[in-house]
Design goal:
Layout (H helix, E strand, L loop, with lengths): L16 H6 L10 E3 L9 H10 L7 H13 L5 E6 L2 H13 L8 E4 L5 H14 L2 E4 L10 H7 L4 E7 L11 H10 L4 E4 L11 H4 L3 E5 L10 E6 H4 L12 E2 L5 E2 L14 H17 L1 H19 L5 E3 L11 E6 L4 H10 L2 E6 L4 H6 L5 E5 L6 H15 L3
Length: 400
């Protein structure tokens, strides 16, 4: 099966952004400066090739290939299972419906952050309504930081799950997930981490993080839409309720059911075989690029972008100033006009950025905004693109 995945180039010394850019066909079309990768992530050409080849390959082994490649990229230990699903949003829904739902009772609590995505909020709002549980939120501190003390103070005897956003695309803030998870484990509280933005922005070592559930989205890694994975501890795997997963149960009696011994209910949620092969190709490409090399490349350009934008008094830039504390996105908003107007003006200059609430509407309300502009920096982003954005924003907001 792995023969259906084109071999990726082993970039060992560092990231050659121009070569990586050439591996993403969509970056050769549209506006010349593409910093809209969060809203419109470009699909890796090798992923498209793998998907095309997959239509002529046996179906059964494709999810296993994707799981193997993702496990290598994310440092998943043997204590955890990588289950390909149709995106990070579905991974979160699986945890909410098939794990948390059957366990929550009236008066129980789920603890979240205000930077949680719409997918996380919606999934647990629905489960809370159905079970009588309540949602509680960690205190919002400057730039979205969360400390182990915050978690320890917020956990009560009724807390049944802690949900964290590893990296907020709006604030860019990286949470110290390993320390937060350790604090929660000491209080016997399982941990779900949404790694949608983090897995594409920094080296993720799941053995170090040691969380119970980790949600991964495929598109930020270069895979097609409708791909992703749920990484879960094997102890939690056996706690999944098969009745909450379509096709996930093996019926063995008239009045009860259980998961198949050799699989799990989440296997029924794997994308089609070609999409799994595309996800595997994208994960393998990122592994060969080197997550640390990708991180160095993105950190350098993020520092360059923050340095340019932060000099503009007409602009509000969000998140930590130190690149060591943030991921690969920079959100900003002008004081004198709606962010969407700025995005349109940048587009006229040939510069594409994302604009909207980025699936984080409550967080924007906390920031007293409806939307922000967001620049996403990937391994394909060029220094000239960052400089063009700084120059374009300066030209629009602070013309000489």
């Amino acid at each position: 099966m792995s023969a259906a995945i084109p071999v990726s180039l082993p970039f060992r010394a560092g990231v050659d952004a121009r070569q990586v850019r050439g591996s993403h066909p969509a970056l050769g079309a549209g506006l010349p400066v593409r910093l809209d990768g969060w809203a419109n992530p470009p699909v890796l050409g090798r992923a498209l090739d793998a998907a095309a080849a997959g239509w002529d390959s046996p179906e059964g082994g494709a999810p296993a290939v994707a799981a193997e490649r993702l496990a290598a990229l994310l440092g998943a230990p043997r204590t955890h299972r990588v289950a390909p699903v149709r995106g990070a949003a579905e991974a979160v829904r699986v945890v909410a419906r098939a794990w948390a739902g059957p366990r929550l009772r009236a008066g129980d609590e789920v603890l979240l952050t205000e930077s949680a995505s719409h997918a996380t909020l919606l999934a647990f709002q629905q489960v809370a309504r159905a079970t009588g549980a309540s949602l509680r939120f960690l205190p919002f501190r400057g730039r979205g930081r969360v400390t182990p003390e915050d978690v320890d103070d917020a956990i009560t005897p009724r807390t049944r799950l802690l949900c964290l956003t590893h990296c907020s695309p709006v604030l860019g803030t990286l949470l110290p997930v390993a320390e937060l998870a350790e604090t929660a484990r000491a209080r016997r509280v399982p941990v779900l981490v949404d790694g949608s933005a983090a897995a594409a922005a920094l080296p993720v070592d799941l053995a170090l993080l040691d969380c119970d559930f980790y949600a991964v989205d495929g598109p930020p890694l270069g895979a097609p839409p409708g791909t992703g994975a749920l990484v879960l501890h094997r102890e939690r795997l056996h706690e999944i309720d098969p009745a909450e997963l379509p096709g996930g149960a093996e019926v063995v009696d008239l009045r009860w059911s259980r998961l198949a011994p050799s699989t799990s209910g989440v296997d029924a949620l794997a994308p089609a075989g070609p999409l799994c092969l595309a996800l595997a190709a994208a994960a393998e490409f990122r592994t060969r690029l080197g997550p640390f090399a990708v991180r160095r490349h993105a950190s350098g350009l993020t520092r360059r972008l923050l340095g340019g934008l932060s000099r503009l008094r007409e602009l509000r830039v969000f998140g930590p100033g130190a690149v060591e504390e943030r991921g690969s996105s920079v959100a900003f908003a002008p004081f004198d006009r709606p962010p969407r107007d700025l995005a349109r003006q940048l587009a006229r200059l040939g510069i594409a950025v994302s604009c909207g609430h980025h699936e984080s509407m409550p967080l924007h309300r906390r920031l007293e905004l409806d939307e922000t502009c967001l620049a996403w920096i990937g391994p394909y982003t060029l220094p000239d693109e960052v400089d063009a954005l700084v120059h374009g924003v300066t030209r629009i907001l602070a013309p000489a």
